[in-house]
Design goal:
The complex is a heterodimer. Chain A is an all-beta fold. Chain A is globular. In chain A, about 0% of the residues lie in helices and about 50% in strands. In chain A, strands 2, 5, 6, 9, 10 and 11 form a six-stranded mixed sheet that branches. Chain A has a three-stranded antiparallel sheet with strand order 3-8-7, with no helix packed on it. A two-stranded antiparallel sheet of chain A has the order 1-4. In chain B, about 0% of the residues lie in helices and about 50% in strands. Chain B is built from no helices and eleven strands. In chain B, strands 2, 4, 5, 6, 9, 10 and 11 form a seven-stranded mixed sheet that branches. In chain B, strand 9 (about 85-95) and strand 10 form a beta hairpin. The chains are: A mainly beta, B mainly beta. Chains A and B meet through strand 6, strand 9 and strand 10 of A and strand 5 and strand 10 of B.
Amino acid sequence: AQRVTQPEKLLSVFKGAPVELKCNYSYSGSPELFWYVQYSRQRLQLLLRHISRESIKGFTADLNKGETSFHLKKPFAQEEDSAMYYCALSGLGNFNKFYFGSGTKLNVKP
Amino acid sequence: DAMVIQNPRYQVTQFGKPVTLSCSQTLNHNVMYWYQQKSSQAPKLLFHYYDKDFNNEADTPDNFQSRRPNTSFCFLDIRSPGLGDAAMYLCATSRGASGYEQYFGPGTRLTVT
């Protein structure tokens, strides 16, 4: 079964501290991994995807196929990073399968 | 310049009374998706359209139906809502198949009384 696991429901850090939001996946084919973010009272939106290998708002994520992980990292958290973060998986060549993790709420304290 | 619009934002319906949720897009995307999201849970894909081709998820109840009369609009019909169908319903679009970014609407929160 294909599955995306985000083990932490809530992560609280102080401003300026490093952040790592964990995501592990289980997929039998070639996955494409995404991070989506939902700020308060806003719609769900794409933050970054592994295939583009870019840094968005200081966040990066590396796909580790050996550990089947796609953790989201930022070296110095900002208060405006407080939001709900969802890891998601799409199966390449099997596009009607798109799975979200249950989300991690990031709270950055001043 | 809203791209994916959902109406209404809040919908209250009675147990067993059919209800329709609406989604429209200005992106001219080929694919439109409907997700159900219950409190503290992951968005769960119900079904999607690739152009006019309908693709139902295996575990989507028969109570949920969808229509896509044209590229811009997609509807979610719940034929006989139960209390367990109370949730946030998200519409999303993407330009094509896997690997494409999905653009989400703001969601419709459905309450069943």
